[in-house]
Amino acid sequence: MDEQDWIIRSAQPFAVWQNGFSADELDAIVALGERQRQEKGVIEHKGQMEAADRVRVTRLAWIPHNPDTDWIYDRLWRIGFHLNLKVWRFDLTAIAETLQYTIYETEEGGHYDWHADNITTVPMPRKLSLSLQLSDPAEYDGCALEVRAANNTDVAPVQRGAVIAFPSYVLHRVTPIARGRRASLVSWISGPLLR
C-alpha cells in the first residue's frame, strides 16, 4: 500500500485509492465471494429490509470476518482510515459490518438506483462507504458507480483494484449493466453518533 496511490479531486464527492489490492489478491477475493451463499439484494424501507426490483437488482454474498479474511478487512480499514484523514476527518471506529460481495449481471438487469448507505439498523452509524472494484472493466458495459453531491454527479473510476470512498450519507447509484458481469466488494466504516 503506497501513499502515492491515493487520489483526491476536490470537485468530486469521493476519493480513490488506486491499486489497493494486487491482481492475485483480487482473484482470491472473487473466489472467496463466489464460494459464499448468494442471496438477492434488498433495501431498507422504514427500518425493514425488503425486496424492490425497481430500485435494486443484485445478488450478494457476505464475507465473514475471521482469521482467513483478516487481511481484507485490515487493508480496507487502513485505506479508508487514510483517505478519511486526508479528506473528511470523521470519527471512525471500525468496519463493524460483514463485507458485502455484490454481483451485477446482464441477464438479471443488474442495477441499484439512487440511495444512501447511512441506515439506522446497524450497531454504530455508517460514516464512510468503500467500494472495491473487483472486475476488469473490459468484462462489462454500463454498471457505473455514480456519486452525487449537490447538483454534480460524478462517475467513479473503474480500474480493477481501485477503492472508492465517500461519506455514507452521499447519494450514489450503480447504473444498469448493459453487457457482462460486474463484481465489487462493499464495506462501511462506522463511528460514534454525533461526531
Task: Write down the CATH class.
Answer: Mainly Beta
Major β-sheet, in short? 9 strands, antiparallel
Using the alpha-carbon principal axes, give the shape. globular
- Topology as a string of helices (H) and strands (E): EEHEEEEEHEEEEEEEEE
Q: Are there runs of 5+ residues with pLDDT below 50, and where?
A: none
The CATH topology name reads Jelly Rolls
Which structural class is indicated by helix and strand composition? alpha+beta
Percent strand equals 35-45%
Give the helix level as a range of percent: 10-25%
In short:
Helices cover 15% and strands 39% of the residues.
Tell me about this structure.
The strands form three sheets. Strands 1, 2, 3, 7, 8, 10, 11, 14 and 16 form a nine-stranded antiparallel β-sheet that branches. 32% of the residues are buried. By secondary structure, the protein is an alpha+beta fold. Helix content is 15%, strand content 39%. The longest helix has 17 residues, at 70-86. The chain is built from two helices and 16 strands. Strand 4 (43-45) and strand 5 (48-50) form a beta hairpin. It has a single domain (3-37, 57-190), classed as Jelly Rolls.
Indicate the topology.
Elements: E1 6-8, E2 15-17, H1 23-35, E3 39-40, E4 43-45, E5 48-50, E6 56-57, E7 59-63, H2 70-86, E8 99-105, E9 111-115, E10 126-133, E11 140-142, E12 145-149, E13 152-155, E14 163-167, E15 171-174, E16 177-190
